[in-house]
Please model this.
Amino acid sequence: MAAAAIDRICAGIADDGCAVTADFLPQATLAALADEARARHAAGEFHAAGIGRGAAHAQRSDIRGDRILWLDQNAGSVEKPLWQALDALRLALNESLLLGLFSFEAHYALYPPGAFYRRHRDQFRADAASSDVRVISCAMYLNQDWTVADGGALRIYDDERVRDVLPAAGTLVCFLSDRFEHEVLPAARERLAVTGWFRRRA
Ligand code: OGA
Ligand code: MN
Model:
């Protein structure tokens, strides 16, 4: 990823706690990731996403209707450019904002037409005392030719405003996990993303 794009993301996080970048990865890489996700979905490797942790974990399609596949950073070559770009971003965030991010976890997420994810937060402040927390949430989209009419925006709630991000191929959105409630609006088309979190050790 271009150094200028990394600088813009770091500045966006520092100023607003949120940053949206277009063209995060080359189109050929995005297309390969989308093909890989669809092939593995067709092979039955995805499962219904859940909510809550531990004993509270539950599948609630009235809250969240996506299907996910967790990614292994040591397997698969298709995702390599993604891990490299995200690692460069992680190091830049640590250098400019002293966030102490040490790892990244991510999954593919496929929303069938009509699926949504109700308003939620990815990390609550109460979790912040635990040893390993989500600090920055990221979503990178894989959908070619997405238009406003397709729906499926990521809606981010800020104090005085609402920000809608279209899930168009190459768009990367990053935001502070404990700060912004957000939701995925239903889409008329299948909606594909890589969703991930930079984590910090206490
Ligand atoms: C999530 C989420 C946003 C998106 O998976 O927690 O909020 O745009 N995803 O896919
Ligand atoms: Mn979320």
